Amino acid sequence: MQVEYIKSLFSKYKETGLSGRYITNKDIEPLLNNLNESIVIETIGKSVLGDSIYGLKIGHGKKRILMWSQMHGNESTTTKSLFDLLNTLLDKDAKLKYILDACTLYIIPILNPDGAKAYTRINANQVDLNRDAQNLTQPESKVLKFIFELFNPHFCYNLHGQRTIFSAGNTNKLATVSFLAPAQDKACTVTANRKIAMDVISVMNTALQEVIPNQVGVYDDAFNLNCVGDTFQSNNIPTILFEAGHYPNDYEREKTRELIYLSYITSLDYISKTNTMGENYESYFNIPENDKCFLDIIIRNTKINGDLVDIGIQYQEKLIKDKVRFIPKINKIDKMDTFFGHREIDAKGFEVFDDHGQLLKIDNENVFVILNNEKISLLPK
């Protein structure tokens, strides 16, 4: 499928009721109420605090694909893209009926509604659900396991978001989208079902390279059976980790949303049209492994105690009055020749002060800095 056509679909079917980083059940429930009768919508369980966990089934094909998002409550980009996808699949004018003829999708848009509401990675019991795949101590983990066994998928899409620190290899290229075909044993054996997952990832990477060349990465495949992806892969189900990352000046992740949508459509098109057995898996290994080469802001060449150093700033995401705010925090003070900033400021040897006239220190939170008598905002532009 042509990338330009998919981009045109996104422009037409983007769900306008969802935007920004803070997405909760309160945001998606009106959308669920408006979906047409061709989608089965059910409450499949309750969170720790009693909020509903929803499941949606669409399509009637033999190839079953399980997709779940916001296992980590503060990773919402993939959820937005899911509703863009649903809007597309429901309109016959999009000409994607063949996907629904070939595939049945089961979608859990928000697995961790308590974490989504609090804008945290963990659930209300302070547990990372992605480390609870074996012990199954949490109600949300049990819901996912129940649906996995009931639906018996042929593919699993494990949908996440990643921080702004990641690069595609040890380079100045962002890892705007990342993937992983998780391991299923300690030896990280390239098994038959991993090859299938790698094959599908390779197809998505080829499409993404047309839009974000050299900005796709893969994660280290070190095995951890407590992780959901590794567990499902160990059950011989091809499982793909999706990670929605940073695009320049896109802290609300709206451009990344489009790229995840592109990945959804590309992969579903491929799965629906082929009986992939992983024959084309090898190009997966050409995708660079993620590194951590980025900071949100680097102030270069500032003088502290007579030495020229760089100041690295990382945004802290804080939920304030139902909106995610990006608070600049001093992360490093050192020479940072091997790091890159999403935004870089050259201090040209001048000292940099906070808005109280004090030199910057690690862990300080500063909305503004004073450089050469100029007040500079550090907030995202």
TrEMBL record:
Cofactor list: Zn(2+)
Keywords: Hydrolase, Metalloprotease, Protease, Zinc
Active site: 243
PROSITE patterns the record matches: PEPTIDASE_M14 (PS52035)
CDD domains: M14-like
Zinc keyword on record: yes
Protein's recorded name: M14 family metallopeptidase
Domain Peptidase M14 span(s) in chain numbering: 21-271
Keyword Zinc appears in the UniProt entry: yes
Stated family: Belongs to the peptidase M14 family.
